[in-house]
Amino acid sequence: MERTLKIAICDDEQTYLDILEDECLRFLEGRNQKAQIFCFQRGEDLLSSEDEFDIILLDVELQHMDGFSVAEEWKNRQRPGKIIFITSHDEWVQRAFKVQAFRYLYKSGSGQDLLEALEDALKDMNDNEGIVLEGKEESRFVYFREIRWIEALGDEIAVFLVGGHLIVRLSLKKIEGCLDERF
Hints:
10 strands, 6 helices, 33% helix, 3-stranded antiparallel sheet
């Protein structure tokens, strides 16, 4: 089951908004990755969106609310998404660390920098995806990368993990619907 990636792009300059959208589309097309791209020219519009985003390309210099304030508010609301700052200035790099930005890119940089950042964000997301399993003894979040194999045990399944296993009252068919294309 292929997941649809959701990307937000927020830049008050339409030219850069178009360039970033085109670069993202080219990146996604080259990987046959399904995605939705949402474009915003104001940070307030991004913040008022009801959508959850996997990746957020965010200009630092916005007209009414700077990108750092948008990122801080986004994080304060505990909304998901890997924030990649895009700017023409290097003097704010340190401030990007305070909001735990995934990357800090320069508008004058190569398109390759953006493509590498998107690739790394996808890899990081895939490495950190998982499922909450309700076991007999315990409930816990299990990263997909920890799962080695799954066996049916009548009304239950055994999920064999790196370093142990978990018995879960769940059908094999039900868990199959929760797993991605790696299984």
